[in-house]
Write a structure and sequence with these properties.
Layout: E1 3-6, E2 9-15, H1 17-35, E3 41-46, H2 50-57, E4 65-75, E5 78-87, E6 97-105, H3 109-119, E7 125-133, E8 147-151, E9 157-158, E10 174-177
Parallel strand pairs: 3-4, 3-6, 6-7, 7-8
Antiparallel strand pairs: 1-2, 2-10, 4-5, 9-10
Length: 178
């Protein structure tokens, strides 16, 4: 099995790029069915979701707007328990259909924080779209991730935008910590 080393830790190939892109295409088709006539605002959570968002938006062929937020809650391989808002939404979402684009939803605290902020602007609707999710680790009750590309194993992962101490985002495949 293919392995890589990042910052002294070994990671093993878990999900190849072809599987990831098929999952992205499936999400894009579901979004189109729900939003092609609504001109949604896609709120991309940086930095992890930028690769997913890039591929997803190349598959979107209907009017939409994109904006970015940057939130941080990780240090190394674990959540630090505190969410810091490093870049705010740069456009109004009031009265608009909003789809939050995230790389991974695990415990759900970051998403809960962001959804509260978005709902303060009174959007017409707001949904969550994630490349991946770990539903067995979700700790926020009632958090609905409507669009999920794939469910992941209970492992720390890197690649396809996901990082370990800012390393590995560039990888086309997804790797799990050995």
């Amino acid at each position: 099995m293919k392995q890589i080393i990042l910052n002294g830790k070994t990671f093993e190939l878990t999900i190849p790029e072809s599987t990831i892109l098929a999952a992205v295409k499936g999400v894009a088709e579901r979004l189109k069915a729900d939003y092609e006539d609504k001109n949604p605002v896609f709120v991309v959570v940086l930095s992890g979701a930028f690769v997913f968002a890039s591929d997803l938006f190349r598959m979107v062929d209907y009017p939409c707007q994109i904006t970015f937020v940057k939130l941080a809650s990780y240090e190394g391989t674990a959540s630090c328990g505190t969410i810091s808002d490093q870049l705010s939404i740069d456009s109004t979402v009031s009265g608009r259909h909003v789809v939050v684009i995230e790389d991974i939803v695990e415990k759900g605290y970051t998403m809960e924080y962001l959804l509260q902020r978005i709902r303060q602007q009174q959007p017409a609707s707001v949904e969550v779209c994630a490349l991946s999710a770990k539903p067995h680790k979700l700790q926020v009750r009632g958090l609905n991730v409507k669009y999920v590309g794939m469910t992941l194993p209970d492992a720390f992962i890197v690649g396809y935008g996901l990082d370990y101490d800012q390393q590995g985002r560039h990888l086309r495949d997804i790797y799990s910590l050995v």
